[in-house]
Amino acid sequence: MIRTVNVIRYITPLREGGSLPAIIEADDKRLYVMKFRGAGQGVKALIAELIGGELARRLELKVPIIVFTELDESFGRMEGDEEIQDLLKASTGLNLALAYLPEAITFDPIINKVDSLLASKIVWLDSLLMNVDRTARNTNMLMWKGDLWLIDHGAALYFHHNWESFNGGAKPFPQIKKHVLLSRATKLDEVNASFKKILNRKVFEDLVNLVPAAWLDHDRSAYVDFFESRLNYSDEFTKEASL
User: Fold this and answer.
1) What DSSP state is assigned to residue 60?
2) Looking at residue 54, what is its pLDDT?
3) Calpha distance 36→84 (Å, rounded)
4) What per-residue confidence (pLDDT) applies to 18?
5) Beta bridge partners of 105
6) CB-based contact 230:170 (threshold 8 Å)
7) Of 126, 128, 127, which is closest to residue 141 (Cα–Cα)?
8) Are 240 and 181 in contact (CB under 8 A)?
9) Which residues pair with 100 in a beta bridge?
């Protein structure tokens, strides 16, 4: 279950993110990094963030707690920065956020070493999700308390931005060659065999059912069909990443 919290304080924008995520405080007295429905990619990025993050969690990878966040229209009136004001006004209602990890540092592939099994799990996950955004330029991973945490899956599932050209998940994903952990992912076959025992259509249905109906412009089964076809194609995308 995904909890819903109310935003009580907008603290600061994180301007290194193109969609202007921000640190906020919620009514549960916790801090979160909030992703806004009014940002460039709209709720599609929130859908990918939610499904991608919870799928990673299902595979026992570390992801900050995800919550739905209710944003009152009053926040847009109080903000002085016009760009942020417009973003807040466009994001009134239900948004998404991840728990803020205080003092976490951005993963650096030169400094931070990742064992081959963990690297293989992350590369396999991003192959399944068709996540184009885990590169050396933008790793979307944090080091916190000695562990590697995955963040920002908003660029995954890019097919749902153009349903008209959607033709299933059984196809190559050449962008995996840019993955920041690819050189360390030497146990992809082992991971592929393991994850295929965990994932199935029921798991994918449960994940897709987390998405609020108001965010969807297509039937849920289309997402489930994508994941099922992608999983059936996993031997091929595993080979693709291994070459």
Assistant:
1) T
2) 98
3) 11
4) 63
5) 143
6) yes
7) 126
8) no
9) none
Find the angle CA(162)-CA(163)-CA(167) to the nearest 5 degrees: 110
- Give me the pLDDT at residue 146, please: 95
Query: What pLDDT shows up at residue 165?
Result: 84
Q: What's the CA gap between 157 and 204, in Å, rounded?
A: 13
3-state secondary structure of 146: coil
What are the phi and psi torsion angles at 67 (to 5°)? Answer: -135, 155
Largest CA distance in the chain: 53
Shortest CA distance to 149 belongs to which of 65, 54, 61, 21?
61
Tell me if 178 sits within 8 A of 140, measured CB to CB. Answer: no
pLDDT of residue 166: 85
Q: Who's near 100: CB < 8 A, 6+ residues apart?
A: 23, 30, 31, 32, 33, 64
Write down the pLDDT at residue 121. 98
Q: What is the mean pLDDT of each run of 10 residues along the chain (243 residues)?
A: 95 78 96 95 95 98 98 78 88 97 96 96 98 94 97 94 87 96 97 98 98 95 96 97 88
Q: How many Å apart are CA 57 and CA 41, to the nearest integer?
A: 24
The pair phi, psi for residue 148, each rounded to 5°, is: -95, 125
Integer CA distances (angstroms), 178 to 110, 132, 134, 181, 193, in order: 16, 8, 8, 9, 23
